[in-house]
Amino acid sequence: MIELKNISKKFGGHQVLSDISAVFERGKTNLIIGQSGSGKTVLLKCIVGLFEVDMGEIIYDSVVFSRMKNRERKEIRKQIGMVFQGGALFDSITVEENVIYPLDMFTDLTLIQKIERANFCLDRVNITNANKLFPSELSGGMKKRVAIARAIAIKPKYLFFDEPNSGLDPQNAILIDKLIREITIEFNTTTIVNTHDMNSVIEIGDKIIFIDQGKKWWEGDKNNFLNSNNKELNDFIFATRLMQIVGESESNRKSGY
Amino acid sequence: MGFIYHIGKYFLMLKKTLAKPESTKIYFNQIIKELDKLGLSSVGIVVIISFFIGAVITIQTGYNISTPFIPRYIIGMITRDSIILEFSSTIVSLILAGKVGSNIASELGSMRVSEQIDALEIMGINSASFLILPKIIASLLINPCLVIISMTIGIAGGWIGGTILTHVISVTDYVHGLQYYFQPYYITYTLIKTEVFAFIITTVSSYWGYYTVGGALEVGKASTKAVVYSTVLILLFNLLLTQLLLS
Ligand SMILES: Nc1ncnc2c1ncn2[C@@H]1O[C@H](COP(=O)(O)OP(=O)(O)OP(=O)(O)O)[C@@H](O)[C@H]1O
Ligand SMILES: [Mg+2]
Q1: A101 and B123 in contact by Cβ < 8 A?
Q2: Which residues of B touch A89 (CB under 8 A)?
Q3: If you measure from the C-alpha of residue A52 to the centroid of ligand 1, how many angstroms do you get, rounded to a whole number?
Q4: What ipTM was estimated for this complex?
Q5: How far, in Å, are A127, A241, B18, B106, B236 from residue B209 at the CA level?
Q6: pLDDT digit string (tens) for B17-63?
Q7: pLDDT band, residue B161 (cuts 50/70/90)
């Protein structure tokens, strides 16, 4: 479980996050949704400690992460896997070496064990015969999947995804969503996903928080997010014609037509 | 204000960079890679430029000293001193600032904007020390070698240019000039300058690359800034060090 208590973050004079609180549970896919520029990436990076919060607390299963020193954080870091918005694979080394990298850092496995583990993870995300390729030789979807393989290599307890299916076609996007959900249940992780993809929200939103301009406006799950009374959320959801149609049929269904 | 901000941030980066390495084995591998990238790949350009500049210095000096009151071997001495005192350290460092500086800034900048630096930090790696320290060490090791190569080739260039190509000076005079009042301290002086310049090039370029914010456009800007700032700082420190070490 990860708990946020009244988090605020400023860059220069620009208040990017204000007073955000939330609870993200284990074994569930928790979503942070919001427009481009709303502060999702900054929030995620605050949670994992890449940015320091100005105010508030971040608690990992009763350990107050935000107050720890960098060295003390290492224990928690060993249990964190993160998939960045563009994959962030190291482009000077191969796919296999990328997946082995965190194992080098955090484990004492022998090389053979590390390669075994890397192959297992790559298999898990359906990447085969690509071990010796460099990231520049992969498609966007494959890069994302390799990044997921790298994130799960150390058997993390906490998994973070920053827009895992942006830039992918709908089929591949759904594959990634399914993968995230399966991994979350299989490894019983606390998973937090940034997204503005409505499809993901409906598919995997066990818990959803909506942020806009750095503030939290709404929280709920995939079953009640289409018929909330929150104006900001509705403006965000029903921005496209497709979602308007979905919304209308949903409200017809609810009112018994 | 902006100026003070950057100086402060630069020193904070240095502090983070010089932190105790976590695994010396990984650092060792990184240093080897950087030696290749920053040093060996620059040997070619250093050789070519040094040869031509050495030749040109000798030829020009030869044509300009036409009075019989100045002995011809002075040409050899002037070539030697210009190359050792100024050309090999300062000019070669300026060239490396362009070549190596832009390379460092664009490498770190693109790692930053593609979040690879964040990915390292997430794995508990001190990214500044991991990425920048090997570059500093490699440059401190390899740049003096490049400068020594440059001095040798420059003096050989003067020889070939002055005697074989143009006959402005005889071989005996040139060699006599090279030995005439030779001060070994000049070599020490030039190597000290080289080390300072190497530190400036790697750290200043790393600074602009490491703190890039934005995208591909900003990476380009960072690498321009890296070259401009290292160049200006090299010129400034050249003046300071000359005052300190030679006066
Ligand atoms: N390092 C930084 N320094 C200063 N401002 C920043 C920094 N990182 C982000 N910001 C600002 O914070 C705000 C939120 O950015 P953020 O990247 O979190 O948005 P986002 O919700 O992830 O958007 P997207 O969906 O496009 O990824 C933006 O206005 C951005 O300019
Ligand atoms: Mg983002």
Answers
A1: yes
A2: 116
A3: 15
A4: 0.90
A5: 33, 43, 17, 6, 22
A6: 988 777 777 788 889 999 988 888 899 999 999 999 999 999 999 99
A7: very high
The two tokens of residue A192 are 């937090």
Q: Mutating which of A51, A69, A82, A104 best tests the B interface, going by the most B Cβ atoms within 10 A?
A: A82
Structural domains in chain A plus CATH codes: 2-248 (3.40.50.300)
End-to-end CA distance of chain A: 40
Q: With contacts defined as CB-CB under 8 Å, which chain B residues touch A86?
A: 114-115
Specify whether the CB–CB gap between A194 and A40 falls below 8 A.
yes
In residues, how long is chain A? 257
Q: Does the pLDDT at position B191 exceed 80?
A: yes
* Strand partners for A22: A4
- Return the H-helix or E-strand segment holding B167: none
φ, ψ dihedrals at A30, nearest 5°: -100, 130
- The answer to whether B114 contacts A106, with C-beta atoms less than 8 Å apart, is no
C-alpha A16 to ligand 1 mean position (Å): 7
Number of Cβ within 10 Å of residue B54's Cβ equals 29
β-pairing verdict for A190-195 and A207-212:
unpaired
B2 touches chain A (CB under 8 A): no
* Largest interatomic CA distance in chain A: 63
Answer for the pair B226, B210: CB distance below 8 angstroms, yes or no. no
* Domain residue ranges in chain B: 23-246
Are A142 and A130 contacting, i.e. CB atoms less than 8 angstroms apart? yes
Residue nearest atom 18 of ligand 1, based on CA coordinates: A39
Is residue B97 within 8 Å of residue B208, measured between CB atoms? no
Does A257 have pLDDT greater than 80? no
Structure tokens at A143: 């890069």
Neighbours of A188 (CB within 10 A): 12
SS3 labels along chain A: CEEEEEEEEEECCEEEEEEEEEEECCCCEEEEECCCCCCHHHHHHHHHCCCCCCEEEEEECCEEHHHCCCCCCHHHHCCEEEECCCCCCCCCCCHHHHHHHHHHHHCCCCHHHHHHHHHHHHHHCCCCCCCCCCHHHCCHHHHHHHHHHHHHCCCCCEEEEECCCCCCCHHHHHHHHHHHHHHHHHCCCEEEEEECCHHHHHHHCCEEEEEECCEEEEEECCCCCCCCCCHHHHHHHCCCHHHHHHHHHHHHHHCCC
- Average pLDDT of chain B is 92
